[in-house]
Protein: NAD(P)-dependent oxidoreductase
Amino acid sequence: MSEERVLVTGASGYLGRTVTRAERAAGRDVVAIDAHGEAGIEQVDLTERAAVAELLRTERFDTVVHLAAAAVGAAGLLASARTDPVMAADVNVAATAHLAHAARESGVARFVYGSSTTVYGPAEDYDDARVTEAACLRPTTVYGATKASAEHLARTVLAGSPTRFTAVRLPLVYGGERWYGGALADLMRVVEAARAGESFEVELPADEADWVHVDDAATAFGAVSAVGEPAGAYHVVGHTGSVLELAQRVADGFGAREVSVRPAEHGGTGALPLIDDSRARQGLGFAPKRSDVEAAAASLIAGD
Structure:
């Protein structure tokens, strides 16, 4: 049997680097591409339809893991999309259409899409304490709208073809080589200040949110690539808790007396719903290594 060949897009990004390493460690033959080429990563602009078609026409891939997303500098995905929605639509939606169509035409068996829980609306829009993958998509951010659009578009493009589409919807992703702040800017500043022994004060919301370590997220993508008949979408969660508690545990773990983390006077508004990841745990055997706030804090303290 020939070695499974996997194309990973967005391979120089935060999640893409980790997934690429995990796929190679699993023994798969990985071709890594990104709009910004570097050693071991081929430069391919997914917004260039002809370049995408040529790549998939000339090389054989069993699986496409599509992680490329629009981002500028350290602002993060949500802020980049809000600042330049046209760029976000080009990279997150149009490029996904190019890739899905090329995958269909070349006979790729699986198309695994890195999506986000920002495809959902505010928690108060849902009746259930935890939403399943069947919940209505009601994004209220530009980024969430592009991710929901890309999911719908790719699924429709690939319908009726041998290419199986699966979306992996991720909550807040932390740990590893995360170099930008984005939605976790305050948490990362706590980590940096505590590690350096610097003074820092911050107020953080006590609202609960879902989290997953980047290594555990990468494991989930690998599981989708390996399972016989993947579902159309999966949620993956490491633990549920507030950014306030996580930041406090990090500061305490460092013994950082100069770092003050206090609860915000008012909770966050429009918080995303908590998600039910039982489908991934049962269907993929997903079992995160960092499954509680203690493990999450230990990971941030260790810098891994």
